[in-house]
């Protein structure tokens, strides 16, 4: 049994004292920023990347991964108790979770969210462990043309996630790609778009871009909207759901887990898409005679999306670990984390760094178990944190961003970058241009150009190579179908409805 | 005229057209190469053109819906926080290498705090002290980052 051998190797790595500690730090930080609205995993991981320099690569990745799935746990707490999504993937949890809280059943909602998350997390980690090795093997057969087409598909799929206009989202992806091209071209040694600024010949640091847009840009948007929070702390009630609750939700948890796992693997997928899709699926399945109706405190409306977002967070590691292609903005930062440690993400990681690969997977179990054990008793503490007003929170975020980005290269140039991208991020938000596709394009841009050049060189300039290779052709056909579906008026309307937040 | 400034699509489209054009024009400085041997200018030129076209499309959609946009409340830019935060971050960058972390962090925390509409000076002083202590503890003594603490430290 390869799987068992591999997993025991992984647990050997994940269960060392150091790595348990880093998983714990990651999970706690993830929960913290998950609970706090106004700061998400993208900004946090970007802030912490520089501090992981000193760590061994496995510990660094374990900690950063913990932040992502920890945030999924934390987000539900805020959604249920405050009716504010702590994380964007918890938007739908607030619909029924807050209603349950108002009916005095906050404890049951929190409990079922944590239990559902744990079941989903454990199952989807098993999926990662089972599917990653065969997929990596298949990925080794990918040629440059296949990679290029796969990235086209991935970027188009990322647009599914974007709010609002599809054309704007495509334009943002392209903007991300061209920004990624700034700097020295590896093939010719020409410094592109560097305007004789020496620092720009190394390219724009993606940590700065991510922090500027998702850290400072977010703050600027948040500062415009006054806040009013009503925290339901008085009556959390018993955290243990009743037997009836379990009976009501086991189906929803199972469906949420499966749907979430599937949507996490898809390029463009991840926690956000998973939670939205599974909520609407569950609602449709329950039909009109759901009791209580969805949106009025139905526990299935909490269980399904919370299971799904955790499952999706976990399985979105599959494309990263097997193909080296990040399916969402958080995974794009993980690529950065791996590159910092001189690990080229891709199908070779599993053979060249088995300890890292299996250690990371095993740590997800460890982390999920820690989150359930820690979070339920600590819920009172997290709720207290919600009482910190935003006017005190954002200067702290700003300081961490500024120091974090400075330490990447110990240069003030990166500080100018976050200042600039903070303003740019604000302008994007005001013009309703979503920034997540930009970050993906930014990470994938150089890889796309490299693979395009190589594919065209191999085919002696014949673009038909993209249609002649079966893998590449499949990806392109899928991209085309996706584009057509997205453009259909009926789907477009539906998609806009799904992403409407009130 | 004012009505056009409320049109988010029109403005976004113009923005993409401008950026796309910059990249296309810039690409002429680099060798185009052939399809088989792409030079450094090939990919940016294609993408820049594509972005300009998409920008045109977005702007056109915006113009088509101009009547609706004109009725909206407007984009509501609030530049004061943008200016305060940007100035605070820039000041941090200028002061950190020469004056050290404590002064840089104090300036950043305190000045950025002015951007909130419900600011409270006593709280701001408190949070500034906390941030200085925390960052010195974590980054200098904990993570041992190479950063100056005070103007006089080496």
Word description of this protein:
Chain A is mainly α and 502 residues long. Helix content of chain A is 73%, strand content 1%. Chain A has 22 helices and 2 strands. Chain A has a two-stranded antiparallel sheet. In chain A, strand 1 and strand 2 form a beta hairpin. In chain A, helix 3 (41-48) crosses helix 9 (206-224), helix 6 runs parallel beside helix 10 and helix 10 (243-265) packs parallel to helix 12. Chain B is built from 6 helices and no strands.
Instruction: Please report the total strand number of chain A as a whole number.
Output: 2
Output mean pLDDT of chain A: 85
Order of helices and strands of chain B: HHHHHH
Largest sheet of chain A: 2 strands, antiparallel
What is the β-strand count of chain B?
Answer: 0
Indicate how many domains the architecture of chain B comprises.
2
Report the structural category of chain A. mainly alpha
Class from helix and strand fractions of chain B: mainly alpha
In a nutshell, what does this entry contain?
The complex is a heterodimer of chains A (502) and B (154). Chain A is mainly α and 502 residues long. Chain A has helices at 2-14, 17-35, 41-48, 57-82, 91-102, 106-139, 144-161, 166-181, 206-224, 243-265, 271-286, 300-315, 317-323, 329-340, 349-352, 354-385, 390-409, 413-430, 436-458, 465-468, 470-487, 489-498; strands at 183-184, 191-192.
Produce the secondary structure layout.
The complex is a heterodimer of chains A (502) and B (154).
Chain A: H1 2-14, H2 17-35, H3 41-48, H4 57-82, H5 91-102, H6 106-139, H7 144-161, H8 166-181, E1 183-184, E2 191-192, H9 206-224, H10 243-265, H11 271-286, H12 300-315, H13 317-323, H14 329-340, H15 349-352, H16 354-385, H17 390-409, H18 413-430, H19 436-458, H20 465-468, H21 470-487, H22 489-498
Antiparallel strand pairs in A: 1-2
Chain B: H1 8-27, H2 42-64, H3 66-71, H4 79-99, H5 101-113, H6 121-142
Helix pairs in contact in B: 1-2, 4-5, 5-6
């Amino acid at each position: 049994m390869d799987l068992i051998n591999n997993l025991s190797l992984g647990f050997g790595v994940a269960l060392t004292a150091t790595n348990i500690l880093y998983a714990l730090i990651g999970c706690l930080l993830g929960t913290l920023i998950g609970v706090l609205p106004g700061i998400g995993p993208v900004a946090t991981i970007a802030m912490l990347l520089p501090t992981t320099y000193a760590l061994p690569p496995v510990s660094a990745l374990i900690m950063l991964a913990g932040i992502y799935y920890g945030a999924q746990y934390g987000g539900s707490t805020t959604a249920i108790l405050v009716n504010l999504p702590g994380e964007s993937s918890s938007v739908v949890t607030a619909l029924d979770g807050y209603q349950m809280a108002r009916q005095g059943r906050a404890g049951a909602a929190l409990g079922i969210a944590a239990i559902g998350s744990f079941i989903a997390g454990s199952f989807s980690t098993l999926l990662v462990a089972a599917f990653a090795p065969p997929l990596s093997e298949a990925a080794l057969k990918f040629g440059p043309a296949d990679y290029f087409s796969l990235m086209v598909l991935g970027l188009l799929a990322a647009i599914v996630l974007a709010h609002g206009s599809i054309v704007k989202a495509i334009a943002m992806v392209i903007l991300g790609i061209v920004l990624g091209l700034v700097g020295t071209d590896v093939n010719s040694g020409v410094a592109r778009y560097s305007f004789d600024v020496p620092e720009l010949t190394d390219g724009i640091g993606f940590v700065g871009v991510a922090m500027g847009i998702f850290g400072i840009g977010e703050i600027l948007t948040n500062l415009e909207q006054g806040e009013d929070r009503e925290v339901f702390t008085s009556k959390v009630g018993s955290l243990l759901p009743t037997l009836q609750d379990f009976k009501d939700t086991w189906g929803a948890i199972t469906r949420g887990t499966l749907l979430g796992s599937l949507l996490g693997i898809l390029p463009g997928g991840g926690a956000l898409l998973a939670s939205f899709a599974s909520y609407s699926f569950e609602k449709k399945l329950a039909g009109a005679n759901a009791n209580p109706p969805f949106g009025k405190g139905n526990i299935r409306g909490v269980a399904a999306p919370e299971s799904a977002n955790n499952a999706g967070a976990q399985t979105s590691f599959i494309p990263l670990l097997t193909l080296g292609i990040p399916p969402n903005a958080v995974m794009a930062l993980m690529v950065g984390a791996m590159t910092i440690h001189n690990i080229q993400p891709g199908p070779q990681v599993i053979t060249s760094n088995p300890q890292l690969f299996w250690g990371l997977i095993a740590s997800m179990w460890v982390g999920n178990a820690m989150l359930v054990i820690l979070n339920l008793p600590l819920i009172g503490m997290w709720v207290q944190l919600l009482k910190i007003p935003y006017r005190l929170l954002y200067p702290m975020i700003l300081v961490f961003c500024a120091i974090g980005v400075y330490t990447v290269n110990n240069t003030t140039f990166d500080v100018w970058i976050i200042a600039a991208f903070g303003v740019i991020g604000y302008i994007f938000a005001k013009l309703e241009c979503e920034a997540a596709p930009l970050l993906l394009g930014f990470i994938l841009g150089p890889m796309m150009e490299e693979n395009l050049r190589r594919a065209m060189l191999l085919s002696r300039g014949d673009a038909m190579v993209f249609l002649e290779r079966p893998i590449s052709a499949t990806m392109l056909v899928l991209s085309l179908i996706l584009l057509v579906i997205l453009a259909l008026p009926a789907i477009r309307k539906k998609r806009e409805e799904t992403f409407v937040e009130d | 005229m004012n009505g056009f400034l409320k049109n988010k699509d029109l403005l976004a489209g113009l923005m993409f057209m401008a950026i796309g054009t910059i990249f296309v024009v810039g690409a002429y400085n680099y060798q185009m190469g052939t399809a088989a041997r792409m030079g450094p200018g090939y990919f940016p030129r294609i993408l820049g053109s594509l972005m300009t076209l998409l920008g045109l499309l977005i702007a056109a959609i915006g113009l088509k819906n101009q009547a609706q946009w004109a009725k909206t409340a407007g984009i509501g830019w609030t530049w004061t926080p943008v200016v305060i935060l940007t100035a605070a971050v820039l000041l941090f960058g200028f002061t950190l290498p020469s004056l050290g972390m404590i002064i840089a962090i104090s300036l950043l925390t305190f000045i950025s705090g002015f951007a909130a509409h419900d600011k409270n000076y006593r709280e701001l002083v408190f949070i500034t002290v906390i941030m200085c202590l925390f960052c010195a503890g974590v980054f200098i003594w904990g993570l041992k980052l190479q950063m100056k603490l005070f103007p006089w430290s080496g």
